[in-house]
């Protein structure tokens, strides 16, 4: 017997509604509906079109047919505010918006970075929810704050709440006590009452509202189930690690989330100085990782070149000479949307490098720079935690990028196992299935099912590691 489950999986550049079939030895996904997502600039502010995302979610649910459950995951840190009647105040702002410029520095003057880290374990990123909320003009009118998947879940069921993995990305969540840090909220001037009760992945949120049942044609008893609602938490569930516990993962999409899965947070000074995050995982695991800027830079290049021919651009990159210009992809100059080829030129000017002269050379520069950043992060993670890494799992859309996977293996000097592609949707349906009683007791069983049903591609390291050592010292010096 298998379950039919709807995964609503919202990424920063596209959203999809997927039908999952999950049973003891079955795990299949079919895409039912895919739609564009991205920043919408109105005057000076970058927004998400959250009502559009809800409309497309409903459209997907309308065409999926009867399901046993619905789970929602999305990118992290962003939120909607509700008034006392549960009405949305304003339009959620995109984390790449400039309203947080300088806010982190301001907050750190009142709350030292050490205090923030010892409570939340979170990496410093200028767009963490904490810094957004401090810059939020609508906060005074707000009665509650819902993270994006919780907001959609609320619209579907009428039940507000805060799913733990996504709450853990706010920098307002106590990572050890596993609840909101009211103390921290007060210290930065936020009313702790706006944060709803925490729910865990696997909790049933509630049945869909009658109006939603009518609009979608679904049975009104269909439950919405909390999953690892942070997309990265869901994708880490689907890391098909069955050979060794010594694995690192790269959840590769718009961002590359590079790190380890740990049984508990690591809140040492070394972890803080290396800017590792301790985000909450499914089953109480810790996602000890760093955000690397990811394929965002290449996506923005394609936008500027007015092409969607990624395959062709990657061919050109494969043919371009190795180790030309290299950039630090995590430089803050690459965070906001814009002309990335021009910013790469600017980086080259600043660092006395020859600018890449063709589209292929630009793409090669981005991919080699990412591979270098991955290598650096995997090595730092091992140093900071004292754990060894024998294999790197690349999951998510970027696992299809053969050149990037090979460069990652070469740079890290480690085998790369690539796949599955739809990791977050798989993690989403797996956690739902378990909540509904499927015989999949723990993460080991969930991962074994992914491994048994999804082919992986293995990349062995090639070339000379010494070339990457030289490249690394060229970009990062001795830092
Ligand atoms: C990936 C992701 C990252 C998070 C970034 C912004 O989709 O969720 O984990 O840091 O988006 O929310």
Automatic annotation (TrEMBL):
<dbReference type="GO" id="GO:0008993">
    <property type="term" value="F:rhamnulokinase activity"/>
</dbReference>
<keyword id="KW-0067">ATP-binding</keyword>
<dbReference type="GO" id="GO:0019301">
    <property type="term" value="P:rhamnose catabolic process"/>
</dbReference>
<keyword id="KW-0418">Kinase</keyword>
<keyword id="KW-0684">Rhamnose metabolism</keyword>
<keyword id="KW-0808">Transferase</keyword>
<keyword id="KW-0547">Nucleotide-binding</keyword>
<dbReference type="GO" id="GO:0006071">
    <property type="term" value="P:glycerol metabolic process"/>
</dbReference>
<feature type="domain" description="Carbohydrate kinase FGGY N-terminal">
    <location>
        <begin position="65"/>
        <end position="237"/>
    </location>
</feature>
<dbReference type="GO" id="GO:0005829">
    <property type="term" value="C:cytosol"/>
</dbReference>
<dbReference type="Pfam" id="PF00370">
    <property type="entry name" value="FGGY_N"/>
</dbReference>
<feature type="domain" description="Carbohydrate kinase FGGY C-terminal">
    <location>
        <begin position="248"/>
        <end position="435"/>
    </location>
</feature>
<dbReference type="InterPro" id="IPR043129">
    <property type="entry name" value="ATPase_NBD"/>
</dbReference>
<dbReference type="InterPro" id="IPR013449">
    <property type="entry name" value="Rhamnulokinase"/>
</dbReference>
<dbReference type="Pfam" id="PF02782">
    <property type="entry name" value="FGGY_C"/>
</dbReference>
<dbReference type="InterPro" id="IPR018485">
    <property type="entry name" value="FGGY_C"/>
</dbReference>
<keyword id="KW-1015">Disulfide bond</keyword>
<comment type="similarity">
    <text>Belongs to the FGGY kinase family.</text>
</comment>
<dbReference type="InterPro" id="IPR018484">
    <property type="entry name" value="FGGY_N"/>
</dbReference>
<protein>
    <submittedName>
        <fullName>Rhamnulokinase</fullName>
    </submittedName>
</protein>
<dbReference type="GO" id="GO:0004370">
    <property type="term" value="F:glycerol kinase activity"/>
</dbReference>
<dbReference type="GO" id="GO:0005524">
    <property type="term" value="F:ATP binding"/>
</dbReference>
């Amino acid at each position: 017997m298998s379950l039919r489950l709807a995964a609503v999986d919202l990424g920063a550049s596209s959203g999809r509604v997927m039908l999952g079939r999950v049973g003891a030895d079955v795990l299949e996904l079919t895409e039912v509906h895919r739609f564009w997502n991205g920043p919408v600039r109105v005057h000076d502010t970058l927004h998400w079109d959250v009502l559009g995302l809800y409309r497309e979610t409903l459209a997907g649910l309308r065409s999926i047919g009867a399901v046993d459950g619905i789970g929602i995951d999305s990118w992290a840190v962003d939120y909607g505010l509700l008034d006392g009647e549960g009405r949305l105040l304003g339009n959620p702002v995109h984390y790449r918006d400039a309203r947080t410029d300088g806010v982190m520095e301001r907050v750190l003057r009142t709350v030292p970075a050490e205090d923030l880290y010892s409570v939340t374990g979170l990496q410093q990123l200028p767009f963490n929810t904490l810094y957004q909320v401090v810059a939020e003009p609508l906060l005074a009118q707000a009665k509650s704050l819902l993270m994006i998947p919780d907001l959609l879940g609320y619209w579907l069921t009428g039940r507000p709440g805060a799913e733990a993995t996504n709450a853990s990305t706010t920098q307002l969540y106590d990572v050890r006590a596993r609840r909101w840090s009211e103390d921290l909220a007060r210290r930065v001037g936020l009313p702790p009452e706006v944060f709803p009760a925490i729910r865990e992945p696997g909790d049933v949120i509630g049945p869909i509202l009658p109006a939603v049942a009518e609009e979608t044609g679904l049975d009104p008893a269909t439950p919405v189930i909390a999953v690892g609602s942070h997309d990265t938490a869901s994708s880490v569930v689907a890391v098909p690690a069955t050979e060794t516990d010594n694995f690192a993962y790269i959840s590769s999409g718009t961002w590359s989330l590079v790190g380890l899965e740990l049984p508990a947070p690591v809140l040492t000074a070394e972890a803080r100085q290396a800017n590792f995050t301790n985000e909450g995982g499914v089953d109480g695991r810790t996602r000890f990782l760093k955000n690397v800027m990811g394929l965002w830079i290449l996506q923005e290049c394609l936008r500027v070149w007015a092409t969607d021919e990624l395959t062709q651009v990657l061919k050109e990159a494969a043919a371009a000479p190795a180790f030309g210009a290299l950039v630090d992809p995590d430089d803050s100059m690459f965070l906001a949307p814009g002309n990335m080829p021009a910013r790469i030129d600017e980086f080259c000017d600043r660092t006395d490098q020859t600018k890449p002269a063709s589209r292929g050379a630009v793409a090669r520069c981005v991919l080699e720079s990412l591979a270098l950043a991955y290598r650096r992060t995997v090595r730092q993670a091992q140093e900071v935690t004292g754990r060894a890494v024998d294999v790197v799992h690349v999951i998510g859309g970027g696992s299809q990028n053969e050149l990037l996977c090979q460069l990652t293996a070469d740079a890290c000097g480690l085998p790369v196992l690539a796949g599955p592609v739809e990791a977050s949707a798989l993690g989403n349906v797996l956690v739902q299935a378990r909540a509904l009683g499927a015989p999949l007791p723990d993460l080991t069983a969930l991962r074994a099912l992914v491994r048994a049903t999804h082919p992986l591609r293995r990349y062995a390291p090639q070339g000379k590691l010494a070339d990457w050592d030289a490249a690394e010292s060229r970009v990062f010096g001795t830092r």
